[in-house]
Write a structure and sequence with these properties.
By secondary structure, this protein is of the alpha/beta class. Helix content is 43%, strand content 14%. A 6-stranded parallel sheet has the order 2-1-3-4-5-11, sandwiched between helices. A 4-stranded parallel sheet has the order 7-6-8-9, with helices on both faces.
């Protein structure tokens, strides 16, 4: 089956017996083209099935009106909400999105960066994978003055624009809340401390213990990959501890929910025996019993702020080089999983 020939403005011009330039100006709404001629052009375009080649035109203008987005996963309520925030702002500004995910692989992240660079995106919004150790794959964008905004998982070295929450403060708030519920032995279930988000939440956890005069016990630090199995493993490890923890600060709501479920299956009462605080304010926190105390991590706000900073830079309204770190609001949401009756 032969592919139908693409209709061009030259075909439109020939049918109407006018110049291709007139067709082009008519389609662009040029004031110098009469309403009657514009109508003829539009009617003929619809009749012949002409499609404007926006990509070619944008390349001539050195713009594709496309924003690249790189995330470390897609099966996350947080990432989904970030993407919703990005999409809202970019759509309003007339930009399309190309979304790529690394599946927590630095190698795939680098390949995605090369692919988006070759697609000539006007800007990039990115969150780093677990095992990313350097940012060399983003250098081609910087060499071509293509703006890059990092969010959530970032490198905070002052040399790039990042959109984050105050993870250390949030880690402190979560731990301080458990301490206020008379927890004395708090386990910290987290992920790779090489990533800023987990390293800073861990710092907040350590600082809260220190300020309360409690020693840090390395055995209470449980590092996993934030999978369902990681939640099960954490619960099993906690069950074997002597003395057993009376509180858990988990840096992910899904893992916290799995950990809680596993502990309950083993006869642990929550929060009476072990109080639990999660992180992210995912929907699962409302669905489990007891409902999960958590840190509200406003993904939509983060996505909107990252996208707006990027778009404003592209439009010349602001300059990313003058903006290093944007802190997004966050707060502790107290629910039933952590509130214990005072003895």
């Amino acid at each position: 089956m032969r592919e139908a020939k693409e209709v061009t403005i030259y075909d439109i011009a020939k049918k109407l017996n006018i110049s291709p330039a007139t067709v082009s100006r008519g389609l662009a709404g040029h004031p110098g083209i009469s309403k009657k001629t514009k109508k003829k052009i539009i009617d003929t375009v619809e009749e012949m099935g002409y499609r404007s080649n926006h990509f070619a035109r944008n390349l001539r203008q050195k713009q594709t009106h496309t924003i690249g987005v790189m995330v470390h996963e897609l099966n996350s309520n947080f990432i989904t909400s970030v993407l919703a925030g990005i999409e809202k702002v970019t759509t309003e500004a007339g930009y399309d999105l190309i979304i790529a995910h690394s599946s927590e692989s630095a190698k795939k992240e680098a390949a995605n960066a090369r692919n988006l660079f070759q697609k000539r995106v006007d800007g990039l919004i990115a969150s780093l994978s677990f095992d990313t150790t350097d940012l060399d794959h983003f250098q081609p964008f910087l060499n071509k003055d293509v703006p890059v905004v990092f969010f959530d998982r970032v490198e905070q070295d002052g040399n790039r624009t990042v959109v984050v929450i105050d993870n250390a403060k949030c880690g402190y708030m979560a731990t301080e809340h458990l301490l206020s519920q008379e927890c004395k032995r708090i386990a910290h279930v987290t992920s790779s401390l090489n990533r800023n988000v987990y390293a800073q939440r861990y710092k907040g956890y350590r600082d809260a213990l220190y300020d309360k005069g409690l020693p840090f016990d390395e055995k209470l630090l449980l590092v996993g990959d934030l999978s369902e199995q990681a939640g099960i493993d954490a619960a099993n490890q906690i069950m074997k501890m002597k003395p057993r923890p009376d509180g858990i600060f988990c840096t992910n709501d899904f893992v916290a929910a799995v950990c809680m479920r596993t502990l309950k299956e083993k006869g642990i009462r929550i929060p009476e025996d072990i109080a639990v605080v999660g992180f992210n304010n995912d929907a699962i926190g409302h669905l489990i019993e007891p409902t999960l105390t958590t840190i509200n991590y406003p993904g939509i706000d983060m996505g909107e702020i990252a996208a707006r900073n990027l778009i404003n830079h592209l439009k010349g309204i602001s300059n990313l080089q003058q903006t290093n770190t944007v802190i997004v609001r966050s707060e502790l949401i107290i629910r039933n999983s952590s509130v214990r009756k005072k003895k």
